[in-house]
Amino acid sequence: NAGVTQTPKFQVLKTGQSMTLQCAQDMNHEYMSWYRQDPGMGLRLIHYSVGAGITDQGEVPNGYNVSRSTTEDFPLRLLSAAPSQTSVYFCASRFLSGQGSYEQYFGPGTRLTVT
Amino acid sequence: KNQVEQSPQSLIILEGKNCTLQCNYTVSPFSNLRWYKQDTGRGPVSLTIMTFSENTKSNGRYTATLDADTKQSSLHITASQLSDSASYICVVSGDTGGFKTIFGAGTRLFVKA
Q1: Which of B7, B100, B102 to mutate: most A Cβ within 10 Å?
Q2: I want to staple B89 with a disulfide (CB 3.0 to 4.6 A). Which of B17, B36, B62, B105 is the partner?
Q3: C-alpha angle with apex B99: A80 to B3, nearest 5 degrees?
């Protein structure tokens, strides 16, 4: 059971380039999400998915696309990278627990620099 | 505006000492409050979860308290260890499913030998 995995660990892009950040989980969780973490700020939600074939926007979706073709995978695509997208990106998955709450698990993160 | 504010921003303590981190929130409605530990270069890991009816929750040397009336929470670390050096993030959800969740910016704790 690997939990939530992300690749790559580090990436440097030039402005205007595109790329895909990979995320996978082996816990059969329906809910997955992408966050970005910037210095001095809390994690902010980019996109989320409540199941295969269903995605929705979070707080800061501009410049990012997602898809969810399987329960396991939830890739994040940067369409045309901008310096403002320099950040650390975390993928997470979660399930509803029996106590009327949820348990959430985060991946190790991808540190992206856009020059 | 729904907000989660943590203090201090950073803290340095000696190994073996205790410390308390603070979290004030204005999230409404309120469903649950979590504390996460985030080691450098890693993703956050859950320490405690408290709902409206709970005012304290422990996880080993970590004890979280919640005052839902004043909308304040604290995380107390007892007998600190070098491995406690990390960021501690307070997270408040307005619903049980976590669709209305606000993350604090975190407190960076340094434990020195």
Answers
A1: B102
A2: B36
A3: 85
b/e string for A29-57 if b means 16 or more Cβ within 10 A? bebbbbbbbeeeebbbbbbbbeebeebee
Residue with tokens 């406690």: B84
pLDDT digits (tens, 9 = 90+) for A9-36: 999 999 999 999 999 999 999 999 999 9
Helix, strand or coil for residue A85? helix
Using CA coordinates, name the residue in chain B closest to A98: B96
What angle is formed at CA B74 by the lines to CA A37 and CA B102, rounded to 5 degrees?
Answer: 35
B33-74: pLDDT as tens digits: 999 999 999 999 999 999 988 999 999 999 999 999 999 999
Q: Is B25 helix (H, G, I), strand (E, B) or coil?
A: strand
How close A46 comes to chain B (CA, Å)? 12
Nearest to A26 by CA among A74, A65, A61: A74
B32 lies within 8 A of chain A by CB? yes
| Nearest-CB residue to B43 (from A45, A90, A99) | A90
Where does the pLDDT of residue A3 fall: very low under 50, low under 70, confident under 90, or very high at 90 and above? very high
B44 touches chain A (CB under 8 A): yes
